[in-house]
């Protein structure tokens, strides 16, 4: 897989269509995957914090979430094809999940926001199975969060705990899972909640 290194972060050199195809393949083959959509804030945080950098290095794919990252790659003469945001990937995978009847799990946001998002998803994407959800205000290290995901056996897990928690949480818990694509989606659950 081709990568573009920006301040130590190995960005995946893939346009969003190829990335989505690749992730669908992982779902079909019941493989797990960890997707980070990195904006300049994430890049600078990882540059200053080696533990957070290690968490990002554990990702399967790191996309450029911001035109500034794409521009930086052009300056480095190793251009990334386009910006790929967490929100865009989430919207695309809600469509795919509806077509393929995939199971999804939502992790993050406040409880009332989360429940509104689940309701909106069930209304607009009737063939998606919402296999589970958990709000993002749990104690760090609470084992029941990963247990709930394992029990639900989702194909896709949208993780919206904000930066840097979402990347840290997946990196620290990834070994507990044997399938599922885990996508960091920032404030997207809030947006879906309306
Ligand atoms: N969030 C959460 N748990 C936390 C902190 C944040 O679930 O401990 C959620 C928050 O409710 C929101 C999402 O993470 O739904 C994104 O939060 P924020 O806008 O602060 O993060 P950013 O998108 O700037 O990384």
TrEMBL record:
User: Which EC main class describes this enzyme?
Assistant: transferase
Annotated metabolic or biological route of this protein: Cell wall biogenesis; teichoic acid biosynthesis
Q: Name one GO molecular function term.
A: N-acetylglucosaminyldiphosphoundecaprenol N-acetyl-beta-D-mannosaminyltransferase activity
Is Glycosyltransferase there in the keyword field? yes
Entry keywords, A to Z: Cell wall biogenesis/degradation, Glycosyltransferase, Teichoic acid biosynthesis, Transferase
Has UniProt tagged this entry with the keyword Transferase? yes
The role this protein plays is: Catalyzes the conversion of GlcNAc-PP-undecaprenol into ManNAc-GlcNAc-PP-undecaprenol, the first committed lipid intermediate in the de novo synthesis of teichoic acid.
User: Which family, according to UniProt?
Assistant: Belongs to the glycosyltransferase 26 family. TagA/TarA subfamily.
Q: What is this protein called?
A: N-acetylglucosaminyldiphosphoundecaprenol N-acetyl-beta-D-mannosaminyltransferase
According to its UniProt entry, this protein's organism is Halobacillus dabanensis
Q: Which residues of the full protein are shown?
A: 1 to 194 of 243
């Amino acid at each position: 897989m081709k990568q573009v290194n920006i301040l130590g972060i190995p960005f995946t050199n893939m346009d969003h269509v190829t990335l989505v195809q690749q992730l669908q393949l992982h779902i079909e083959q019941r493989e797990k995957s960890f997707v980070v959509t990195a904006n300049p804030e994430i890049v600078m945080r990882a540059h200053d914090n080696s533990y957070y950098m290690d968490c990002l290095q554990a990702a399967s794919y790191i996309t450029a979430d911001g035109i500034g990252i794409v521009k930086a790659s052009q300056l480095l003469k190793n251009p990334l094809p386009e910006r790929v945001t967490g929100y865009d990937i989430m919207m695309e995978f809600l469509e795919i999940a509806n077509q393929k009847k995939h199971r999804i799990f939502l992790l993050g946001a406040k409880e009332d926001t989360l429940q509104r998002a689940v309701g909106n998803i069930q209304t607009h994407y009737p063939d998606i199975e919402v296999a589970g959800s958990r709000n993002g205000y749990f104690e760090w290290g609470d084992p029941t969060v990963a247990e709930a995901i394992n029990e639900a056996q989702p194909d896709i897990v949208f993780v919206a705990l904000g930066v840097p928690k979402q990347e840290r949480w997946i990196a620290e818990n990834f070994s507990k899972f044997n399938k599922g694509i885990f996508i960091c989606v920032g404030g997207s659950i809030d947006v879906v909640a309306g």
